[in-house]
Amino acid sequence: MAKPNYQELVFDITRLIPPGRVSSYGAIADYLALGSARMVGWALRNSFIQDGIPAHRVVNSKGELSGRAHFDPPSVMQQLLEAEGVKVENDRVVNFKEVFWHPEELGW
Questions:
Q1: Which site among 2, 12, 56, 66 is 20 to 30 Å from 25 CA-CA?
Q2: Distance (Å, rounded) from C-alpha 73 to C-alpha 52?
Q3: How do strand 58-59 and strand 92-93 relate by DSSP bridges?
Q4: Quick check: 49 pLDDT over 70?
Q5: Cα(107)–Cα(15) distance, rounded to whole angstroms?
Q6: Would strands 23-24 and 92-93 be described as parallel, antiparallel, or unpaired?
Q7: Angle 4-7-10 (CA atoms, 0-180°, nearest 5)?
Q8: Are 73 and 1 contacting, i.e. CB atoms less than 8 angstroms apart?
Q9: Has this prediction a pTM greater than 0.85?
């Protein structure tokens, strides 16, 4: 069995972010101990080729919807978050600290 590549690892962690919660590119990168926040963003930019990857739940370390430009249209990222109960104003998660999810919560 082949070892999963970086992109697959990012996809796997992103699938585990619970609805109504958000994580950050940096938290995922730190958890995987591979690459950087920028590399996580690059991997998620490619997530649209597969179903079931909630890339809308990954924001930058300030809670900003920095990946919105990769949604078509960009407002879709906010709409998906709000449908899950995440409040967004001015392209930023309002209660970021309360809804933030770190992969360490998995306890693995």
A1: 2
A2: 19
A3: unpaired
A4: no
A5: 16
A6: unpaired
A7: 95
A8: no
A9: yes
The amino acid at residue 92 is R
Is residue 5 packed enough to be buried (19+ CB in 10 Å), middle (13-18) or exposed (0-12)? Answer: exposed
pLDDT band of residue 78 (cuts 50, 70, 90) is very high
Phi-psi region of 90 (alpha: psi -120 to 50; beta: other; left: phi over 0): left
Helix 6-15, helix 37-45: angle, nearest 10: 80
Residue 96 identity (one-letter amino acid)? F
Number of neighbours of residue 9 by Cβ within 10 angstroms: 18
Backbone angles phi, psi at 58, to 5 degrees: -115, 120
Count of C-beta atoms within a 10 Å radius of residue 49: 8
| CB proximity list for 18: less than 8 A, separation 6 or greater | 101
Which one-letter amino acid corresponds to residue 15? R
